[in-house]
């Protein structure tokens, strides 16, 4: 995509911040379905490292020289913090799901993100969040609980550690989103920021992939899954997400990203053959209502 498409001032509704974040979230929602086609021996850790490690290199390649301008800006603090958060997020998130189950890992990681974002923006940026955001976030998190609520039943001793890792993953997601937003406000383009930050994060994730990725990368199906995850829900989605962050606050963006589990649930029904109960379908409606509220904030 050209710089004119993603970095120039918005002139069409397609380029509005909330819509771009929603499009990115919809692509993220395909990751679970895609990962279900991975070889049986592929670990969640290797899938996460492949997705954001290889995808980070792709974002760096897309950004080209502009990413290195961010690296040479002389103010590396935000970039280092964001890159470390990029590395933490997939390792914590996928480990959380492996230990506590997909439901608990998803609820804690994605559900905690809007709360962490609100705290970060309030403490660091002095942003006051209105009642509209509070209602929209509450609806979305409640909907997320309803969609995945069955996963809490019978949780074993690993669930606590998994939940703690989920909190770490949620914090990582918020920190790299906030860091990217701050760098863009300093005048860097969205592609440059995402390329520099995720490219730096890949330096941590690729060694993890080298250590854990044997079963994933040794079969055609595993390579196909890793390739899809790196190009679509990582490469393309984060280009869109970065562009959306130019016109969307971190708290709003993390709330809008709760579209991801809705898409994942629907694809689970249509593609994987899973079934949702009435409570889960009601949860999708609540998330939809919350997303409408936050995306129409003025």
TrEMBL record:
<dbReference type="InterPro" id="IPR000620">
    <property type="entry name" value="EamA_dom"/>
</dbReference>
<keyword id="KW-1133">Transmembrane helix</keyword>
<feature type="transmembrane region" description="Helical">
    <location>
        <begin position="159"/>
        <end position="180"/>
    </location>
</feature>
<feature type="transmembrane region" description="Helical">
    <location>
        <begin position="76"/>
        <end position="92"/>
    </location>
</feature>
<keyword id="KW-1003">Cell membrane</keyword>
<feature type="transmembrane region" description="Helical">
    <location>
        <begin position="98"/>
        <end position="120"/>
    </location>
</feature>
<feature type="transmembrane region" description="Helical">
    <location>
        <begin position="44"/>
        <end position="64"/>
    </location>
</feature>
<comment type="similarity">
    <text>Belongs to the EamA transporter family.</text>
</comment>
<feature type="transmembrane region" description="Helical">
    <location>
        <begin position="192"/>
        <end position="211"/>
    </location>
</feature>
<keyword id="KW-0472">Membrane</keyword>
<protein>
    <submittedName>
        <fullName>Drug/metabolite transporter, DME family</fullName>
    </submittedName>
</protein>
<keyword id="KW-0812">Transmembrane</keyword>
<feature type="domain" description="EamA">
    <location>
        <begin position="161"/>
        <end position="296"/>
    </location>
</feature>
<feature type="transmembrane region" description="Helical">
    <location>
        <begin position="253"/>
        <end position="272"/>
    </location>
</feature>
<dbReference type="InterPro" id="IPR037185">
    <property type="entry name" value="EmrE-like"/>
</dbReference>
<feature type="transmembrane region" description="Helical">
    <location>
        <begin position="278"/>
        <end position="296"/>
    </location>
</feature>
<dbReference type="InterPro" id="IPR050638">
    <property type="entry name" value="AA-Vitamin_Transporters"/>
</dbReference>
<dbReference type="GO" id="GO:0005886">
    <property type="term" value="C:plasma membrane"/>
</dbReference>
<dbReference type="Pfam" id="PF00892">
    <property type="entry name" value="EamA"/>
</dbReference>
<feature type="transmembrane region" description="Helical">
    <location>
        <begin position="132"/>
        <end position="153"/>
    </location>
</feature>
<feature type="transmembrane region" description="Helical">
    <location>
        <begin position="223"/>
        <end position="241"/>
    </location>
</feature>
<feature type="domain" description="EamA">
    <location>
        <begin position="16"/>
        <end position="148"/>
    </location>
</feature>
């Amino acid at each position: 995509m050209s710089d004119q498409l993603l970095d120039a001032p918005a002139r069409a509704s397609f380029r509005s911040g909330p819509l771009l974040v929603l499009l990115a979230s919809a692509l993220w929602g395909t990751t679970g379905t895609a990962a279900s086609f991975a070889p049986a021996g592929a670990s969640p850790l290797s899938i996460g490292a492949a997705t954001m490690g290889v995808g980070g290199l792709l974002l760096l390649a897309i950004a080209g020289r502009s990413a290195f301008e961010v690296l040479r800006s002389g103010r590396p603090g935000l970039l280092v913090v964001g890159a470390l958060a990029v590395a933490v997020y997939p390792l914590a998130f996928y480990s959380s799901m492996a230990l506590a189950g997909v439901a608990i890992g998803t609820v804690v990681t994605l559900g905690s993100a809007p709360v962490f974002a609100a705290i970060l923006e309030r403490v660091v940026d002095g942003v006051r969040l209105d009642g509209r955001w509070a209602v929209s976030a509450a609806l979305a998190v409640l909907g997320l609980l309803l969609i995945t609520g069955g996963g809490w039943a019978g949780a074993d001793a690993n669930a606590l550690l998994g939940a703690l890792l989920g909190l770490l993953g949620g914090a990582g997601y918020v920190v790299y989103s906030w860091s990217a937003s701050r760098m863009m406000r300093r005048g860097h383009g969205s592609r440059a920021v995402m390329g520099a930050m995720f490219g730096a994060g890949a330096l941590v994730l690729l060694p993890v992939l080298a250590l854990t990725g044997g079963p994933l990368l040794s079969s055609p199906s595993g390579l196909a899954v890793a390739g899809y995850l790196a190009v679509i829900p990582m490469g393309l989605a984060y280009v869109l997400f970065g562009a959306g962050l130019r016109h969307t606050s971190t708290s709003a963006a993390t709330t809008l990203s709760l579209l991801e589990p809705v898409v994942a649930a629907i694809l689970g029904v249509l593609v994987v053959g899973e079934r949702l109960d009435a409570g889960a379908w009601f949860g999708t409606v609540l998330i939809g209502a919350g997303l409408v509220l936050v995306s129409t904030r003025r």
